[in-house]
Amino acid sequence: MPSTSDTSEPLTSSASALTGTAPQPSINTGNMVILTSPSLTEILQSIEKIKDTHVSPPHPQKSRMSYLLIEELDRETFDRLWHDSNLLKAVTATLWRANRTVLFRIMPNRQHEGLRSSFDEILLRVLLTMHLEPMTHGFRCFRSARVYGDQTSKEPDCSFYPPASLGPGITPSPSLVLEVGVSESYSRLSQDAQWWHANAPTRPGLVVLIHTTTTPCFRVDIEIWTHIPNQYGSRESAPSHLQISQHLYVQGNAVYGGPLRLDFELLMRRPPNPLTERDVVMTDQQVLYIATQME
Fold first, then answer.
1. Quick check: 89 pLDDT over 70?
2. Can you give the residue range of the structural domain that contains 102?
3. Which residue, among 142, 157, 150, has the nearest Cα to 105 in the 3D structure?
4. Which stretches of sequence are listed as region Disordered (predicted)?
């Protein structure tokens, strides 16, 4: 039988997120359950229990993000989880191959689905105003589509794949990923952003973080993270670093710092047609619509 424990310790440190090593408890991030050497059946049962007790309580306003950390997983079960991203539903996962560790992120279903649906709905709607649509122009929005690094893999909450990232003989890679946190530590969510910089085989040009807090009042923060070239780096240093290029937030019925702007060339991985194409701009009204899905 696996051992299990509840802890308020976090899931990774910044260093482990950057290097792709397994998570090590270091600072308080909130609600987490740890299982050691469980079977696949026990993992499934634990996820359902977490959903029932923490993610979907009798009072929806008390729902919150929860985590399940799996340690010392046997090779056969780990390989099944590594190769089959559809094995577990309604969760996103980060996997570390070196020591067969898995981190599941379990979000309130109504808020999670509402947020993901509204974000890609608005994104596709804005692209349609430029006469760009998936069927004829070959781009796609996916939910929880797993991306593999050398020794670790991760599922974002939503991802955008331009035509240049899809097709025969091409390893699919998103140009935009969305990571969502419901009443969770901001440091944990920012580590998710850093994972894409450090581990994705082809770095997404845009990482969108959406973070909600409920105290002292309900607020939704949205950040756009982009890669900035290192101007004074040495030959051995990284050519770029990840930096927040825009921050806006929603409180009450007001949007501060909007509109939300996504660089067209980073999104589509090609320059825009100056006659018909431009940066993707989500108006304050559209941002407010997305934020209301989190209440």
1. no
2. 3-106
3. 157
4. 1-30
